[in-house]
Design brief:
Strand 6 (227-230) and strand 7 (233-240) form a beta hairpin. The chain is elongated and about 125 Å long. The protein is α+β, with helices and mostly antiparallel strands and 876 residues long. Strands 2-3-8-5-7-6 form a six-stranded mixed beta barrel. It has a six-stranded mixed β-barrel with strand order 13-14-19-16-18-17. A four-stranded antiparallel sheet has the order 12-20-11-21. Helix 19 (475-512) packs across helix 28 (794-831). The chain folds into four domains: 2-35; 112-330, no CATH class; 344-515 and 743-873, no CATH class; 518-736, no CATH class. The protein is built from 30 helices and 21 strands.
Amino acid sequence: MRDEMRAHLEQATERFVARGMTEADARDAARREFGNVSTMQQSGREARGGQWVESALADLKYALRYFARTPLATATIVLTLALGIGFSSAVFSVLTGILTRPAPGVPDDRRLVKIRGLSDMRPYARLLSYPELQAYAALTSTFESVTAWVTTPVVVDEGIRDLGVTTTTAQFVTPNYFKTLGVRLAAGRTFSQSRFDERFPAELTAIASYGLVVDRFGGVQAALGKRVKVNGVDVTIVGVAPPRFAGPVQRGEPHMIWLPLSAWQTVEHVDDRLSNNMFAGAFDAAARLGPGVSATQATAAVRVIAARFDAERKARVSQKATSSADVVKLRGIMDVTGRYDEELMPGAIAFIVIALLVLLVCTTTVNSLLIGAAVGRRYEIGVRLTLGAPRSRIIRQLLTEVLILAFIGGALGMWTLGTLAQLVEVARDGFDVSPDWRTTGFMLVYSVVTATLAGLSPALHATRIGLSEMLKDGSAGATRRSRLQATFVVAQIAIAQPLMVILAASLASVLGSVPDVADVAHRERLLLADFNTSVSDYLKAPNKVPNVIRRVAALPGVIEVLPVGYGEGLGVAEPGSSSQSVGSDSAQPHLLASTYDIAPGYLQAVGAPIIHGRDFVASDTALGIRPVIVSQRLADSVFGATDPVGQRMHYRPWRSKAGPDERPVVMEVVGVVRMNSENNAPGYPSDYAPMFVPFRGTGGRFLIRTSTPAEPLIARVMEIARAEAPLMPVEFLKTLAQSDSKRRDDRVEISMFVAGCGALVLLLASVGLYAMVALAVGQRSREIGVRVALGARTREVVRMFFKRGLRAALLGVAIGLPIGVAGLVALRRVAGMLWVQVPIVIALLTLVVIGVASLASWLPARRAATVDPMTALRAD
């Protein structure tokens, strides 16, 4: 094509020479007649097939040469994109690792499923009985194999005097457990028994977790063949599970042990009725689907069996609940209660929203940087446009440069933050959150979207101005770019401000709810025991809780044992009287509250003082109107300045099957308590205002108060419970100090993550603001030179640009602050966030943002004052 065009020009030149023109004039006339050679060559190349490959390579080479000429600006953009894209990719990797991947050690096999029991009266799954499991295992056309397990804490004694005994989690599993799951042991062998239904004779062997053998035995080989005592029964360790494996449903426990189901009765001293009674729901189950069978088909098959068992239950026992079952994909996060979707969805949504906001902040920051870079390339772009390069060609070139930087930054950020993600709690709990092919695909798509959002507007504005305007120093175009960049900076800070306010307030709420360290010594002497009484209730077994309490109370060092009930759960507390009808006081003040049944003396034992009124007495259980002790927060919200003692209130429990005509519970306030920390609630923390009612039942939860640290009594309490109440599995047995320590560690990690997000957002915002002021300095260098030459002082020049940056920052804060406050109000309503010093947090954070913005504005403004007038006035 180039040779043909040259030949055509030579012929035209000869023609004009023959007409009497000089050779030089003839050549110019031929070129004018022919047109722009570069434009025609470009059009010809675009008309040929496969030209896009050559154009892409040319764009790549040109971009690399430009990056080599501007290393500092390139590195800044790459690091900014790495922070934004890498953070979002890490969030995606964590969410997919928790929600979609199997537990560590379990293969990612679509045929692995969980058989989940359901009940319409409870928002969580029910445990399965062994006869029901046998019926599922008999579906050989649906399931290739079925396995089941019971989870319970046990006391393990390795026989090492210096180590002492340890409490760990055990799973009594059907012998085909590891084979069904496809888990390969790190060392040793599986159980001698192998079939699902082998329950006799008792095989006293065990498979220990990798973390347990490393921490307690020093290594894998040292544990194999080791005889240990589990609940006082000799057991031989024959195998070691793979690293991080803690069962098909992730439990976050490094120390676990697996025993065959045939050892359950011997080790746990349980009644054989637990394995033979259809009402004794104690098992979780997983299965491997048969070839060609889908989870939907398996669900239809198990629901037929579940319906038959439900009909038999209703025929024998008076119950309103309807039981069912389904089959779902086996995921690592799937817990035995089945509440994983409801519990994780708010957190997942919060992570996604934060990632999107970080993307917006990152995009606006890169926008500012690219606009500043475009100002420095204004002559280059103008010359290329004048020489005939299509505008679309230059826009494509600019977008290609941004896309390359986005890919580099995304890969760097994904690798860096992916590595850090493995160091946080989710990784130590065993979730596989490392980047995989899905994370890589997400990063690539995310990079394309980010590059388009960040680079399109600067590219359009950079190619809008022609060469003539560029040669005039581009003052009008520079002004437009400066205004565009200022708009991006204001939007950036307006987005960053509410995000940082919400993160900081959440951080204050998290730290404000951590129990005081000064209470540790007191809480070490409080042991909370929680036993599952549902199985014994189903079997109509005699209540053995009083026997357990009596023997525990007789132990040396035990001061008292206080029974604690489960209460009514979450509900609405509001003022009322016995004469009011339901709904008549709906406009009255109310608050979400959690009730707890407690015995007299419980509040004093946990260190929650009654600041007004009285404590419960034994005769309170016989009163017609139920007395209640409310927290100070609840009293202030519901009764205001009115003295709450002696007032009556309504409590409306939230039940999934509560009918519209259900009357609220009428209670009378007898006392107000000051809660020192949220863990003063019996057993589990609550984000809602607690209130307490007299204990009337005989549940399986009680608080043990001792004169010395209670942790050494754990093994003895478990021994008594198994001897006196074998039908009551132990679900929770820890001191309140142990529970506090675990939650404190969790909150510190959450706080570090929140603080890191806030620092990331603030860094991106400051980079964008710095780029805006630096751009203004570069655009107005001649003006600065003139001002300095005419006698302007240094501080006047600094003040001029400093005010420009600070004005943009304050405008962004003014726009974003109301949005942040509105987000806090919504977050408090939805998540029950504690309102801990939020106004102070907002004020301090606003000052921090303004301070950082001032620094980001002052640095380039100070540089403006150092401009040499002679250099600035010299032609570019």
